[in-house]
Design brief:
Layout lengths: L1 E6 L2 E4 L4 E9 L6 E7 L6 E7 L4 E3 L7 E6 L4 E6 L8 E8 L13 E2 L3 E6 L1
Parallel strand pairs: 2-11
Antiparallel strand pairs: 1-3, 3-8, 4-5, 4-9, 5-6, 7-8, 9-10, 9-11
């Protein structure tokens, strides 16, 4: 199967930046789509951004213009560059992968999940 490991979370002040990484291992050829989701305390897990094998990219409206998703195929790694961070961006960020093609923005559509990394934005 596929294993996903996130890194790069931490504490940052509002307006600051962080870069998250998601390293994939195993049967990575199964990953047609790789995405980032986030979950704040007491809230449902929500879609943040996704990139597919053609490098088509999708963003949630709440992060457009502030977050950038990218991939390094040689390293089997997907990144999420987060800028102009706001306190409402505070959440556990999860990397997810699926062998389903097309635009996928709902958690049940994803087969593989990382353990999550905490991002805290202070005001």
């Amino acid at each position: 199967q596929v294993q996903l490991v996130e890194s790069g979370g931490g504490l940052v002040q509002a307006g600051g930046s962080l870069r998250l990484s998601c390293a994939a291992s195993g049967r990575t050829f199964l990953l047609y789509n790789t995405a980032w989701f986030r979950q704040a305390p007491g809230k449902e897990r929500e879609f943040v951004a996704a990139i597919n094998w053609r490098s088509n990219i999708y963003y949630a409206d709440s992060v457009k213009g502030r977050f950038t998703i990218s991939r390094d195929n040689a390293k089997n790694t997907v990144y999420l560059q987060m800028s102009s961070l706001k306190p409402e961006d505070t959440a556990v960020y999860y990397c997810a992968g699926t062998s389903n093609d097309g635009y996928r923005q709902y958690p049940p559509e994803y087969d593989y999940w990382g353990q999550g990394t905490q991002v805290t934005v202070s005001s």
